[in-house]
Design brief:
195 residues; alpha+beta; Alpha-Beta Plaits; four-stranded antiparallel sheet; two-stranded antiparallel ribbon; 4 helices; 6 strands; 26% helix
Length: 195
C-alpha cells in the first residue's frame, strides 16, 4: 500500500452541517412572519438594578450578548432574538423576538414562555452563572425570568410599497413648492411641504 495514498484528503473534507457557524448573518424582517416585544426581569431577584450584578462578578450586557448570539445561531431556522434595551439602572431588559412562522391566535401564550423557560433560561442560569442573581424561591422553582410580551405589528407590504413608489427623493418635492425643516420635538425633525 502506498504511504501517501490519502495525500489529497483535504479535497474531500465535508464539514458536518451542525458545526457550520453562520457568521455575521444580518437580521432581515422580511424573513420572519411574527414579531414580539419581550420584557424580562429576574424572578425572585437579589438585584435592585443591573448595576448590582457586579457584586456577583457578572457583566450583564456581555452575558446577554453571548447568550443571544448562541441562541440566534442555534435557532436560526425558527427564531431570532435581539436586545432592544438594557439600562444599568433598571431591573429588566427588553428583547425583540422574531419567528419565521406566525403563531395561531392564543398560541403565543404557550410558545413564548416555552422559548424563554426551555431554550433561553439554561444558557443564562448555568452558562452565565445567573443562578447567583435569584433568591431561594427562584432556585427551588428553577425559574430565572419573569416575562411579559406584546405582539409588534409591522406592515411590510405597505412599507415596501412606499419604498418602491419613490426611488428618488426629488419625486417627492413639488416642482413649484418649497420644503422647510420643521422641528416638532427635540428628538424628531420632520420635513413638511409648504405650498
Amino acid at each position: 500500500m502506498k504511504e501517501n495514498f490519502f495525500a489529497d484528503y483535504k479535497n474531500f473534507i465535508v464539514v458536518p452541517e451542525d458545526n457550520k457557524r453562520v457568521v455575521n448573518e444580518l437580521f432581515d424582517p422580511k424573513n420572519y412572519a411574527a414579531f414580539y416585544i419581550l420584557t424580562l426581569s429576574i424572578f425572585d431577584s437579589r438585584l435592585s438594578t443591573w448595576k448590582d450584578a457586579r457584586k456577583f462578578e457578572i457583566d450583564i450586557e456581555k452575558s446577554i450578548k453571548t447568550v443571544l448570539s448562541d441562541f440566534n445561531q442555534n435557532q436560526r431556522e425558527r427564531y431570532h432574538l435581539q436586545l432592544l434595551e438594557l439600562d444599568q439602572f433598571k431591573n429588566y431588559f427588553i428583547l425583540a423576538l422574531s419567528s419565521k412562522t406566525k403563531f395561531n391566535s392564543g398560541e403565543e401564550k404557550e410558545r413564548i414562555p416555552y422559548i424563554i423557560d426551555k431554550l433561553l433560561t439554561n444558557p443564562f442560569y448555568v452558562g452565565q452563572s445567573w443562578f447567583n442573581l435569584i433568591g431561594e424561591k427562584g432556585k427551588v422553582a428553577r425559574k430565572l425570568f419573569s416575562c411579559s410580551f406584546k405582539e409588534y405589528v409591522w406592515d411590510y407590504q405597505n412599507h415596501s410599497k412606499r419604498d418602491e413608489n419613490y426611488e428618488n427623493i426629488s419625486e417627492l418635492i413639488p416642482k413649484n413648492g418649497e420644503i422647510k425643516l420643521v422641528k416638532n420635538s427635540p428628538k424628531r425633525e420632520i420635513l413638511k411641504y409648504i405650498p
